[in-house]
Design brief:
Length: 227
């Protein structure tokens, strides 16, 4: 199993998208995006990449082919050699690994994804397909951290009954803390390989871009093998 949290370094994109942008919907040159996606696939020794089309939902798709997936915020596959790529620029990404089969998943969660619990939706899709919770392990990627993610108080209030663990204080949400709680309640272990996208210039950050176009990084995961 291979997994990589993507930063913005060492790609071929130019300008605002410099340089490792893997999103084809932000105005970047499609050929340069394709080159970066190909490089990301090579990081995880994959033959093809299924790319999430995030929609701030808890919709999960089981995929078996490369290309841009239908709109949704979770992807699951059990095809060896097919990578799953979740894009983000501040939102939380996570990979779900089944240590007892070829099944893998990824999810993407901003505040809407935590409220709708896309992490659990992704895990449940894997459980329904036959995975055991005791064999699943979540690896969280990069995201804006709880110190940096300032939101209106009314938004914080939306979490009080649904996922209080995501509340840092009256004006800050901690996406990763919320998702950790959502994963733990299902009996699934987890770790983080990510950093704060807002604080670290090596990552694309929607908030740091402050209205200017910017790229997307994310998390890519693949089970080794032939497609
Ligand atoms: Zn931060």
């Amino acid at each position: 199993m291979h997994i990589a949290a993507l930063d913005r370094l060492d790609g071929v994109s130019q300008g605002n998208f410099s340089s490792f942008n893997v999103a084809n919907y932000v105005g970047d040159d499609p050929e340069q995006v394709a080159s970066n996606v190909e490089s990301a696939a090579s990081f995880v020794s994959a033959k093809g990449v299924a790319i999430m089309s995030a929609s701030h939902s808890n919709v999960v798709h089981v995929v078996s082919d490369p290309g841009v997936a239908l709109p949704g915020d979770g992807l699951v596959t059990d095809v060896p050699g097919l990578a799953l790529l979740a894009l983000s620029a501040d939102c939380l990404t996570g990979a779900v690994i089944d240590q007892a089969s070829n099944r893998i998943g990824v999810f993407h969660a901003g505040w809407k994804g935590i409220l709708s619990n896309v992490a659990a939706a992704t895990i449940r899709t894997m459980l329904d397909a036959g995975s055991g919770a005791e064999h699943l392990h979540v690896v969280f990627g990069s995201r804006i951290c709880g110190d940096c993610y300032e939101v209106p108080t009314e938004r914080v209030d939306q979490f009080r009954d649904v996922c209080p663990q995501a509340i840092r204080d009256r004006t800050h949400l901690d996406l990763a803390a919320g998702a950790r709680a959502q994963v733990e309640v299902l009996g699934v272990s987890h770790e983080s390989i990510g950093a704060c996208t807002f604080e670290n210039d090596n990552f694309f950050s929607y908030r740091r871009a402050n209205g200017q176009p910017t790229g997307r990084g994310g998390l890519i995961v693949a089970r080794a093998g032939e497609r």
